[in-house]
């Protein structure tokens, strides 16, 4: 068995034994199931990259938890810094517009108030 195959086998065995850590950390940092799955995958990739440097004299679960937390925190910071795509005004204009402004009866009442007020007549005069 080659060294890389042995490394891969050991990593998979330890990952399966302690996979709950990855899932718990991902669930703690992501509410959306798709984001949670992506974060769990990112954590696993980072664990694999760091595995050759793992000191077998230390507890694997502690090492794994530390890496999982660091990846989750970095992911959270990245999401907070990422610019949010603003919605076009046309897409939200109806939801933020005054619903009474579209009501013809309301428009007539406003026009009548403006016509009866001396202050409004002065501002509306040509």
TrEMBL record:
InterPro entries: RNA_pol_sigma-70-like (IPR039425), RNA_pol_sigma70_r2 (IPR007627), RNA_pol_sigma_r2 (IPR013325). Gene3D superfamilies: 1.10.1740.10. SUPFAM superfamilies: Sigma2 domain of RNA polymerase sigma factors. It comes from the Bacteria. One of its GO terms (biological process) is DNA-templated transcription initiation. PANTHER family: RNA POLYMERASE ECF-TYPE SIGMA FACTO, RNA POLYMERASE ECF-TYPE SIGMA FACTOR. This is RNA polymerase sigma-70 region 2 domain-containing protein. It comes from Xanthomonas arboricola pv. pruni MAFF 301420.
């Amino acid at each position: 068995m080659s060294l890389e195959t042995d490394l891969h086998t050991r990593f998979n065995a330890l990952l399966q034994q302690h996979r709950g850590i990855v899932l718990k950390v991902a669930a703690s940092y992501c509410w959306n199931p798709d984001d949670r799955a992506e974060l769990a995958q990112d954590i696993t990739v980072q664990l694999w990259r760091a595995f050759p440097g793992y000191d077998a004299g230390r507890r694997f679960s502690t090492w794994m938890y530390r890496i999982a937390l660091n990846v989750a925190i970095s992911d959270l910071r990245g999401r907070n810094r990422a610019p949010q795509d603003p919605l076009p005004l046309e897409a939200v204009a109806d939801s933020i517009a005054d619903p009474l402004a579209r009501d013809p009866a309301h428009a007539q009442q406003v026009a009548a108030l403006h016509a009866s007020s001396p202050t409004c007549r002065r501002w509306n005069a040509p």
